[in-house]
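Hello,

Our lab assistant flagged a job as stuck in the queue for most of the afternoon. It eventually completed. Since we weren't sure the result was trustworthy after the delay, we are filing this so someone can double-check. Below is the sequence as submitted and the structure that was eventually returned. Let us know if re-running is recommended.
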Amino acid sequence: IERILECMGGLMRRLHMHKHKMPLFGDKTMGRAQIEILMMLCHCKVKPTMRDLADHLQVTSGAITQIVSPLIKKGLLIKIQDEVDKRVTRIATTPVAEKLMTKAKK
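-- returned structure --
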């Protein structure tokens, strides 16, 4: 968690805490919440559910859907069915997202 917070702090400083959407990764325009989700997911060993993400950001399930859906459409996140409980859907980063986040840390 400490490493995640350190990375988030550095990235947020680099973004200068803009409140609007930013073209952070070329054509991948994202808001602050989307960047926070990507950073969190890049460091998670257990992939979270949408509910976990909503709880982390302290937003509603409807709000988290609006935050995550564009990232799925951009090919940065994917939905994965839980191996133990098939009713549960988890969210994970794609290799493209991991590459972008690595690039952003530099």
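-- support follow-up --
The delay was a queue issue, not a problem with the job. The result is valid. Helices lie at 2-15, 32-43, 50-57, 61-73, 95-105. Strands lie at 22-25, 28-30, 77-81, 89-93.
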